[in-house]
Specification:
This protein is an alpha+beta fold. It has 3 helices and 3 strands. The chain has 2 domains: 47 residues, no CATH class; 31 residues, no CATH class. A 3-stranded antiparallel sheet has the order 2-1-3, covered by helices on one side. The longest helix has 17 residues. The mean pLDDT is 87.
Amino acid sequence: MDNLTIKVKDETTNEILFECGANEASKAFKFATEMEKYNIQIRIEAPNSLETLFSSLTPSSEDTDKLSNEIYNELDSHN
C-alpha cells in the first residue's frame, strides 16, 4: 500500500496542494480542513477500496494503471 497516495487539489486550478501516502490520510484531511477555512475549494483524491485491495496484492504499476482506468471508465459509464 506504499504506492497509494492521497492528493488534495485546488478545485479551480486542479493544482496539487498536498500529497501524502494513503497510510497518512489524517494529514491530508487536516490540510483540507485548513484550506476550507480560507474558502479554498478543494477536492480530495484518495484510493478506493478496490485500489487498496489490489495494491495489497503487490501488482506491477502497469497492472495498477490498467485497473484504475477500468474502474474510472466503469464509473463514468454510469454518469
